[in-house]
Design brief:
The complex is a heterodimer of chains A (about 290) and B (about 180). Chain A is an alpha+beta fold. Chain A contains five helices and twelve strands. Chain B is built from seven helices and two strands, in the order αββαααααα. In chain B, strands 1-2 form a two-stranded antiparallel ribbon. In chain B, α1 (about 1-30) packs antiparallel against α2. In chain B, about 40% of the residues are buried. Classes of the chains: A alpha+beta (about 290), B mainly alpha (about 180). At the A-B interface, α2 and α3 of A face α1, α3, α4, α6 and α7 of B.
Chain lengths: ~290, ~180
């Protein structure tokens, strides 16, 4: 009797029904682990496959994203109705200030051009933008990136700066034919050379997967205070000088962070800055 | 002759009905690629597709064979731009573990299944956190995975309700599942 039970269990264990699903699962588990190890050895290891996949899925993602973005915008507009009155007052106030600044800027611009002419100053080439629609987030709590529906066919190349309406949000890290991936400034892997306005101190803006990136490698004698402007320094030649990034904020524990001018949370469109690199790299600018 | 064409027709309609489950899984995969903006919590990434993998592994495992789970996870990995293989690993292991315990889970009340899903999604979050920390070579914050697991736990009833409705539309299985 005991033998029969044991032989039944043995038959079940060696039977194809038991091992069929298990063996297949084990095989795919091993395959996934091998891919994980191979991919984590170097981020570029699976780059080409990633780009082909995003190019393939980009049309589908863009179809799904548009209604999602509309739904979010509708919810926000409804929930924000209560604040409309206060917002209009604040905008009117801001508009008056901006008009004053506009006049000032026009005067300074004219003066600047005159002085540059006098000094025979070599100005940087004009900047061009490619506007692209955001079609997906990273889908991972530990990755801060965006997928946009524009690739090297549209003039988007690796390394280019990406801006929202208010300031820098990240840079292009992978480019396909019709889609590109943007690494946000908040991602833990993001490092951008910046200058602290007012002090001219150089630093590296380092992402931490949270809302406010930190400033690293600041000169020791730099006195930070809340409200100082942060702009790109242009060092390293990847990003141009002077792109607005954010402003310094003081945390409760005495440390400082950077509040971005542009939060990437609700972005539906971004501007990819073409600073001439596209011509320099050509098609090789793509992965 | 008539009988053959009728059975062919039944086969085709059965296949079309079965594909509804896969179409819905695809929709969830796309949703996985979009952060859900929630008040006070910011952008949250619930594990949409994992809910379907869990549900079908319990109630209709032949719909989510290991190869499909691997493919779905791989698609998310490649589209998310992160390290490749992590979601593929998670999807296959969830399918494997849930499938081995499906007889137990099927006999449980709904609340118990929900709770098991909650525990599973939390454990998966810890695995994800460990794998990401390993790749980044630093201890990352556990808060994002806690929020994500909590969001997945609370959307589970809604998605499982839809999956339940979808399950009723599917043809009756001809062979018992293993």
């Amino acid at each position: 009797m005991k033998f029969r039970t044991r032989s039944k269990t043995l038959a079940k264990l060696i039977g194809p029904q038991y091992w069929g699903a298990k063996l297949s699962s084990l095989f795919f588990l091993l395959a996934a682990l091998s891919l994980f190890v191979f991919s984590s050895l170097s981020s570029g290891n699976m780059g080409a496959l990633r780009i082909y996949t995003t190019d393939f899925f980009a049309p589908v993602l863009s179809v799904f994203t548009a209604p999602m973005q509309d739904a979010v915008a509708t919810v926000e507009s409804v929930t924000g109705l209560a604040d409309v009155k206060a917002e209009i007052a604040a905008l009117k106030d801001e508009n008056v200030k901006l008009r004053r600044w506009y006049q000032q800027a026009m005067i300074l611009d004219a003066e600047n051009k005159e002085l540059q002419k006098l000094l025979n100053f070599k100005t940087e080439a004009g900047l061009h933008y490619v506007t692209a629609r955001v079609i997906a987030d990273s889908g991972n709590a530990y990755l801060k990136s965006l997928l946009v529906k524009a690739g090297y066919e549209d003039g988007v190349f690796k390394g280019q700066a990406v801006l929202g309406g208010e300031g820098l949000v990240g840079r292009v890290v992978e480019t396909g034919k019709s889609s590109a991936r943007i690494l946000l400034l908040t991602d833990v892997n993001s490092r951008v050379p910046v200058v602290v306005g007012g002090t001219n101190a150089r630093a590296i803006l380092s992402g931490n997967n949270e809302g406010a990136p930190t400033l690293e490698h600041l000169p020791l004698d730099t006195e930070l205070k809340a409200g100082l402007r942060i702009i790109t320094s242009g060092h390293g030649g990847v990003l141009p000088y002077g792109l607005p990034v954010g402003e310094v904020i003081a945390h409760d524990d005495g440390t400082f962070g950077v509040r971005m001018y542009e939060s990437a949370d609700r972005l539906t469109h971004v501007r990819v800055l073409d600073n001439g690199q596209a011509e320099q790299f050509g098609a090789a600018g793509a992965l | 002759m008539l009988h053959t064409s009728e059975s062919n027709f039944t086969n085709i309609t059965d296949m079309l009905r079965l594909s509804l489950a896969h179409i819905f899984l695809f929709v969830l995969l796309v949703l996985n690629m979009m952060a859900l903006p929630l008040p006070f919590l910011g952008d949250v990434n619930p594990a949409w597709a994992l809910i379907a993998i869990f549900y079908w592994s319990v109630y209709r495992p032949t719909l989510v064979p290991p190869a499909l789970c691997f493919g779905a996870g791989l698609a998310i990995d490649l589209l998310s731009g992160g390290v490749v293989g992590m979601n593929a690993f998670i999807f296959v292991i969830v399918q494997m573990l849930v499938r081995s315990q499906r007889r137990f889970l099927m006999g449980q009340p709904y609340m118990m299944t929900w709770l098991v899903f909650g525990l599973m999604v939390l454990s998966i979050g810890v695995v994800q956190w460990g794998m990401q920390s390993l790749v980044q070579a630093q201890l990352l914050s556990v808060l994002p995975i806690l929020i994500s697991a909590l969001a997945s736990f609370f959307i589970f009833p809604y998605i499982s309700l839809l999956l339940n409705g979808l399950h009723r539309l599917l043809p009756v299985a001809r062979t018992p599942y293993s």
